[in-house]
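hiii so um. not sure if this is the right channel but i have a protein structure encoded as tokens and i wanna go backwards to a sequence. like what aa goes where. can anyone help
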């Protein structure tokens, strides 16, 4: 299990280190825009600022922190959260905490 996790980690590190995957974002792959790059940069910055201002104005209270949930019917929730599904998904075994107080030793 730990060997497979190591192989997955090394593969992910190699994939992140390759410049081909990094070229998927930004102006690296597309330098022939029909507008100047400075205008594209300013427009992108304005879109980002306007989106965060609109989000703060239109969504003033935290709606996702309320606990409105229902258990899944028929024991589906117990099945989805079972150890067998965790193993099938490759989740490592994490032991439950022994104490809720943090130790700074």
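sure thing!! here u go:
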């Amino acid at each position: 299990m730990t060997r497979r996790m190591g192989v997955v980690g090394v593969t992910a590190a190699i994939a992140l280190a390759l410049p081909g995957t990094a070229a998927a974002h930004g102006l690296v792959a597309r330098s022939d825009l029909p507008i100047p790059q400075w205008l594209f940069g300013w427009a992108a910055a304005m879109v980002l600022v306007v989106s965060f201002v609109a989000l703060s104005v239109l969504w003033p209270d935290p709606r996702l922190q309320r606990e409105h949930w229902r258990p899944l019917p028929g024991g589906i929730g117990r099945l989805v959260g079972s150890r067998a599904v965790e193993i099938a998904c490759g989740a490592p075994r994490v032991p439950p905490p022994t104490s809720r107080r943090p130790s700074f030793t």
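oh and The mean pLDDT is 74.
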